[in-house]
Every structure is written in C-alpha cells, then in structure tokens.
Amino acid sequence: MEDPAQDWNDWLAGNAGRFLLFARQQTRCESDAEDVLQDSLVESWRRAGGRPDAALVFATIRRRAIDLGRSNDRRTVREQESGELLCAPAGDRETAEMLSHELRRLPPEQRDVLTLKFWGGLTFAEVATTLEIPPGTAASRYRLALESLRETLALSLP
Amino acid sequence: MNPDDDLEALLGRAAPAPPSAALMARLQAARPADMKPAHPRILRFGLPLAAAAATTLAWLWPQPPAAAPQVADTSKLQAVGSVQHLMEVADLGIVVGEDDQPVRLIRTRWIDEILYAPPGGGTPVKQGRVREEVLPVSLELY
Question: Which residues of chain A make contact with B30, given a CB cutoff of 8 A?
Fold first, then answer.
C-alpha cells in the first residue's frame, strides 16, 4: 500500500503549480493566495478521501477566495503585487514573461476560463461548474480570451 | 485544423510558475491526517438509535431500581449475572475531534445490577453500581 505522506507529496509536486496559479488570480495578494491554496488542498483531499479531482480543488479555491471577501477593485492592486504567474520549462523565459503580462491584462472572467481550461486541464463542462456559469459562456469566454491574446501576441505568432 | 493551434502552441511554451520551496514545504507539512472513519460505523449510526431506545425504556421502566445495599466483599463471590439500567442521557455538546471533525459527546448514566452467587449456595446477592460513560458520536457533514 502506498505511503499516504508520499502520495500527498507526489500529488503536490504534480499539481500545486496550476492550483497556485488559479489561487493567485482569485486573491488579493501572494499571502492570501498561499493561505487559500493550503486550505483548499487540505479540504479537497479530506472531502475526496485521497487525491481529489482537479475540478473540485479549483472550485474549492474559488469558494474560499470568495469567502475571504476579495473584491474586483482590489484585484488590480493584487495583480501588481503578485509574482510571476508563468514560467518557461523549456527555457523560453521571455515568452513566459510576455504571456504572464498578457494574462494579467485579460478581463478576469476571461482569464479564469483560460487558466482553468488551458493550464488547469479542465473540460468546458468542468470550467462551467467551477465558475458557476453555463458551459456555452465558458466556451465563449475562452474564445474571447484567445482572440484578445491573438491581437496582442500577433508579432510572436509564426 | 484548429485555427487556434498556433496560439495554443505559444501558450503551451509557458507553464504555471511552481510554488516556492518554502511554500511546498508548508503544503507538505499540512498533509491531512490519514483518512479513516472517525468512529466505527456502529457508533456513527447505531449509538444514537440505541441511546434513544434506552431513554424510552428508562421512561417506561415501572420502578427504576435503586442501588442495592453494598455487598461486604464481592471479590470472593462469583458473579452470575448482571442487568444494566439506563438512567440518564445528556447531550454535552459538540467538540472538534482529533481529526478535526465535529463530534457530539453524549453522557450516559447507568445502574449496573450485578448478581453474585454466595459460596455456600442460596439466593444470589445483588450489588448496584452507578456508572457513567461519555460517548463520542460522529456527525454527518453536508
């Protein structure tokens, strides 16, 4: 039988990054993001009795961030305070910084969908459930996010 | 071909920034306690029913037995039977258990009648004892 502590650590190693990215987008500052992340991971693990589905974790992060009472007005301040959202595993640091910058410029509702769908690995149905929006809305926000990025990243595209 | 392939390929060149080493250490230390039932299933479901039934029984009992006179030295006697009478059930409130789950504590008070057979034979001797138990009962969370 697998060691529970090792299972927890392995799960963190494989998933904490994407959950932290979403937590950063939902909270006011880095310390709030870390607090929400920790509480959400622990709560989700307990609820599932082990490794939880990613959709459950994202939904828990969102709910806990809302519970903290973060307002949209404070998001602007928060985003300026947060560290880099993205990194470049292949060493393309310039691209990662550019994408982090453009990600911050997106409207929050588009950015949430893009993050959950692209880096979170959720389906549109899961994104819709997590954000409590219709699946069609999730898909259209994803489309709008890509269109917006296409305009600003035109020079970087082949 | 997906018209967004080029854009998604560009997005794919970046990944969520990993947590710092300090944050990872903090998360690893926050590992939830091993998942296990807070209490045996019989406690979770059976105990409240048993407590309710026993309370009803106590109310309906025609003559609750009083504690019997003390037997001089029961260590030399042979216990041949016992009867438990539930006298009181009290809800002590809800506390948080070791696994951070809420637990309701119920105090039960019993009179145990123990029957002893005298060494030389004859009518069994009764001894009454008051006994208290505090029982944890798991709560279902929704």
Answer: 38, 41-42
